[in-house]
Design brief:
8-stranded mixed β-sheet; 752 residues; 25 helices; Rossmann fold; 9-stranded mixed β-sheet; binds GDP-alpha-D-glucose
Length: 752
């Protein structure tokens, strides 16, 4: 694909809300443009694509139109939305919206992801409706998407959608961006088991998951590992369905729009107006949606402390507080509005004078020019959320300060604090710190203000919202390319047919089959994956053909292999090649070896296992394994690394190798591996068909030694020396079944 940036392809944006709101009054539709960071940001990006000369239909928007529209009006809305806003409305009933939006989205996910577990409601009805609404979005999308589209899903309302969509359209590139924090595992795990699993699985349906900060990405990795057992390799998570890239894209703003605002006549008019009303005072600005996560009460309390400690600033500063209505009718929001208004009244009553009102409070939406004027006229911007995914207000304030003056006070709990380190950073829970920051800001010399703002402005100009969206879309295109490369190795239909045909025509065949992770999925404990009847029947019918030599080539000890497969006519390789057993023959060692070293190393391994609940040592005859599949993954990774280092020192001069497997560290004789074992087999016969299937690094040694003509398959979507990949053990069984059931009865002996 030549279009590396994705700008030639149609972009399908999916978000809970469309870029407009519709209301129904007297049976007629009324359209209102909707504001907010997401819509404004993406609109700027779309505009930049247009300016770059793209076709006008290079994007469409899919989402809820803002109210429940029924009957005849739906058709009208559909055509108007497409014509005027390139949008496809998703229709939802008032009840669906209530339990989905006010319920699961805003009474469960929003509080929990912003670290307000005590506000979190765990209501199964809400969860059911969340799933249902995600399904409705999926159905609507399926009527819109075309195969060469790029789909970009936004935010916490639609976390199940990526997987739902991928199930219906596996080749469609799907990206997801989360605008709020992804909380730490300890908080995320508070969700009931099926909910948290389905949310993670839902997100991991996407090809690319974007988050604002590195911390949120780390939190996501940790939850994916601990809840689903999926590890990440350099930011990529391998799932049975594919590779998912997780990366950080700190959302920017339309920098030029804010930097140029001061030159606009309407903004100038607003500035004059504000200055006229608030002349001779220093303005401290506060702008947020009404939300408990924004720390508005703390801010007021911090301001109160500041006034208490600094009488000299009485009559000299004003806190201009804009609170934008949001989620009206939700208990915590209504309650908070009351508290804010009481506190504003208290502060004004306590400190105000006839000629001075300390807090000028407005509870309303302000148009862009008024907002830009406020940014421009204010000496300080006070942003103190208790948690905030990013916070665009802080960035907009800095961008608007074209003369370089102005001080930003910013909560360390915002994503924006990671990029705006030159601001005065405060902990919003510390009211005294807010009060002190106000004093520091009011006393900061102009040249220091400029020095700080210039640095932040340079950063915000470089990584603006166009760059943010452009980077995300390009990353989505590159993830596709990687996915296509890996997929190119997935056993294609033609190669599978060739393999079967080659098998059918050959006279002397050998099949090297690993067991764990190849013929059966990996389990928490090795004892849990005893072969079942279907697997045994399959092996049995493969061995029934006298042209076949079937070799189970495993890291297991020989007594387990004997117990499980001893009654079959199969060859066995135990302990990764230390022990070999021909069909109907006794076990033999692949080379002479002693195992005195085990006595020395076992106590060390045991001591590491004692320090890690869930870890255990498996002693085999010529090797030892330290398993940690059921242990705490983070602690295990640290301890495994420490132990490997320790063992490497001890074994440096011995004929031993320490290797890292799939959540297991193994110590065995150097020069003994699955490759040497297979070579031994191949050397003794003249096979005209060689097939090897395995799932982990130890199988790579096997793939490497096979003759050119051999067919090798690695299970899992990872890069490999093998010729092809299959995704999961079920696909291996399906392939082997196809071989075993070839209609070629004449040559079969008929018994296992
Ligand atoms: C979520 C995350 C993340 C606000 N009031 C008015 C108005 N606004 C505009 C601001 C800004 C946007 O709305 C608010 O964005 P924030 O980032 O501050 O906060 P959330 O709405 O909570 O946004 C947040 C964001 O998504 C993006 O990913 O940063 O963490 O919670 O652009 O200018 N605009 C106008 N009038 C208003 O009264 N015109």
């Amino acid at each position: 694909m030549s279009d590396k940036t994705g700008s030639e392809r149609r972009l399908v944006i999916v978000s809970n809300r469309l870029p407009f709101n519709v209301t129904v009054s007297e049976g007629r539709l009324r359209f209102h443009e909707s504001a907010g960071g997401l819509v404004t940001g993406l609109s700027a990006y779309i505009e930049s694509r247009r300016r770059a000369g793209r076709l006008s239909d290079n994007h469409v928007w899919v989402g809820w139109p803002g109210s429940s529209v029924e009957g005849q009006l739906q058709e009208e809305l559909r055509s108007e939305a497409l014509l005027r806003f390139q949008s496809y409305p998703v229709f939802l009933s008032a009840e669906e919206m209530d339990q989905f939006y006010l319920g699961f989205c805003n009474a469960t996910i929003w509080p929990l992801f912003h670290y307000f577990p005590s506000y979190t409601v765990y209501q199964p009805r809400f969860w059911d409706q969340y799933k249902r609404v995600n399904e409705v979005f999926c159905e609507s999308l399926m009527n819109v998407v075309r195969p060469d589209d790029l789909v970009w899903i936004h935010d916490y309302h639609l976390m199940l959608l990526p997987r739902m969509l991928k199930k219906k359209a596996p080749d469609l590139p799907v990206g997801f961006f989360l605008h709020i924090p992804f909380p730490s595992f300890e908080v995320f795990r508070l969700l009931p088991g099926t909910w948290r699993r389905e949310i993670l699985e839902g997100l991991l349906g996407a090809d690319l998951i974007g988050l604002h900060t590195y911390e949120y990405a780390q939190h996501f990795f940790q939850s994916a590992l601990r809840i689903l057992g999926f590890e990440n390799q350099m930011g990529r998570i391998l799932t049975p369905e594919g590779i998912v890239k997780v990366d950080t894209f700190p959302m920017g703003i339309d920098f030029d729009k804010f930097a140029n605002a001061i030159g606009r006549a309407d903004v100038q008019g607003e500035i004059q107006h504000s200055r006229h009303r608030l002349s001779h005072v220093k303005i401290i600005l506060s702008v947020d949606r009404l939300d408990y996560s924004k720390g508005i009460l703390n801010r007021l309390e911090g301001f109160e402390l500041f006034l208490e400690a600094n009488p000299r600033y009485h009559g000299v500063v004003v806190l201009a507080m804009v609170v934008v209505p949001s989620r009206i009718g939700v208990h915590h929001y209504d309650q908070m509005k009351k508290q804010i208004e009481e506190l504003v009244g208290k502060i004004n009553g306590r400190f105000g004078r006839i000629d001075w009102t300390p807090v000028v409070y407005q509870y309303r939406n302000v148009p862009f020019e008024a907002l830009a004027a406020l940014y421009s006229a204010s000496d300080i911007c006070l942003v103190t959320p208790l948690r905030d995914g990013m916070n665009l207000v802080a960035k907009e304030y800095v961008a608007t300060r074209t003369d370089g003056t102005g001080v930003l006070i910013l909560s360390e709990m915002t994503g924006a604090a990671k990029e705006l380190g030159e601001a005065i950073i405060v902990n919003p829970n510390n009211r005294q710190a807010i009060a002190d920051a106000l004093s520091e800001a009011l006393e900061m010399p102009a040249n220091e203000q400029k020095r700080r703002n210039r640095m932040m402005q340079a950063r915000l100009r470089r990584y603006d919202v166009m760059r943010w969206a452009g980077d995300f879309v390009s990353a989505l295109v590159s993830v596709q390319e990687v996915r296509d490369k890996v997929r190119a190795k997935l056993l294609p239909y033609a190669a599978r047919s060739d393999l079967i045909e080659h098998y059918r025509q050959s006279r002397r065949r050998v099949l090297f089959l690993d067991y764990d992770g190849t013929l059966t999925p990996l389990a928490r404990h090795p004892a849990l994956v005893k072969p079942n009847e279907t697997q045994m029947d399959l092996l049995c019918s493969l061995t029934a053909d006298p042209r076949n030599t079937v070799v189970i080539i495993s890291g297991r000890d020989r007594s387990t292999l004997d117990k499980w497969f001893g009654d079959l006519s199969v060859g066995l390789v135990a302990e990764h090649g230390a022990w070999l057993k021909g069909v109907g023959k006794p076990w033999r060692l692949s080379k002479s070896m002693t195992s005195e070293w085990k006595g020395q190393l076992l106590p060390i391994l045991e001591s590491y296992a004692d320090r890690l609940p869930g870890a255990f040592v498996e002693e085999k005859e010529h090797s030892v394994a330290w398993h940690y599949r059921s242990a705490d993954p983070d602690q295990a990774a640290l301890l495994a690394a420490e132990m490997t280092d320790h063992l490497a020192n001890l074994t440096a001069k011995a004929d031993l190798q320490v290797s890292q497997g799939n959540r297991v560290v193994e110590i065995r004789h150097a020069g003994v591996n699955k490759g040497t074992a297979a070579r031994d087999w191949i050397a003794n016969a003249d096979f005209d068909f060689v097939l090897a299937i395995g799932d982990d690094l130890t199988d790579e040694e096997l793939f490497r030694v096979l003759p050119e003509s051999a067919m090798s398959i690695r299970v899992g979507l990872v890069s490999t020396h093998a010729r092809y990949n299959l995704r999961v053990p079920a696909e291996v069984l399906e392939l082997l079944n196809a071989l075993a059931q070839l209609p070629d009865e004449a040559t079969k002996s008929g018994k296992c």
